[in-house]
């Protein structure tokens, strides 16, 4: 079976999110890790690369060197995974695109929408694919919800509600672990912590499930916690094109919540609800009080895409599978493209990344001026 080769920025020993990227990219045996710059410390990068069986000459000191040298090779990597902190994303993605290498980047894509738009122009100009890892929309549950909505099961959408609640910043700054400390630093995280880090997941999940486009938003962003300058809690009201209304509450300081992402979509005839902490169940409510709980992977799945269900009924689909679904869909498209065949963009792409950055920017503007802001 033909395989792709890929490289990584980030992902050395002790990494969290980059390790999920790596496992996701390797999950379906469609790709092989062939190059990387895994750490700013070259010795650590070298040690990790060698432990993965990578040739020393393809373990690089900087992402700039890696993009330039890989771009020159006849056997250059097919794509790169950017799993470093936020402040690296724009320049790193730009370097690889300019050297003719497809990109998958962690979210948020960039700090500013003009940067994301520039990346899109470069990718399109060089005919390159660009994926962004909004993993929650790649769970079977949200995919099933989208198909139910497309089939008209709940009628025209009236209201949408999404929450992403955690307590990972409820402690003092001194108690934060290394994987969380940079998220409150504007030099690394950018202009927003809460909305930029987890609020965009709720926003993108709504967009993916419903197909709704934001028209206007009103945001109230709060800085909760001593010696912090970026938001750790936010409430956002959304007016969607077509008349639907929505609310998004995201927070890093809600004690007792671990990874409480949930979405509810209310239509004229029914509603659909999904909770990430119970990810294999979609609840379908109908007028008159009837409620059906659909469990992913069971016999009803003819309604949805059978390929997205990886495990037997009753065995939980989880975060690793969701990451793997992003990479499988991206790599399937890239393999088809390489072979000159038609392909489908069935993964979160750069357009999703741009929409999320514009969402963050609108929230910041609304919060600063206490007014409705039109989405651009």
UniProtKB/TrEMBL annotation:
Q: Which InterPro entries match?
A: Gfo/Idh/MocA-like_OxRdtase_N (IPR000683), Gfo/Idh/MocA_oxidoreduct (IPR051317), GFO_IDH_MocA-like_dom (IPR055170), NAD(P)-bd_dom_sf (IPR036291)
Superkingdom: Bacteria
Q: Where are the transmembrane segments?
A: none
Ranges for domain GFO/IDH/MocA-like oxidoreductase: 145-272
Which residue intervals define the domain Gfo/Idh/MocA-like oxidoreductase N-terminal in the entry?
Answer: 5-133
A Pfam match is GFO_IDH_MocA_C3
Q: Which PANTHER family match?
A: CONSERVED EXPRESSED OXIDOREDUCTASE (EUROFUNG), OXIDOREDUCTASE
Q: What is this protein called?
A: Gfo/Idh/MocA family oxidoreductase
Native species: Ruminococcus gauvreauii
Q: What are the leading ranks of the lineage?
A: Bacteria, Bacillati, Bacillota, Clostridia, Eubacteriales
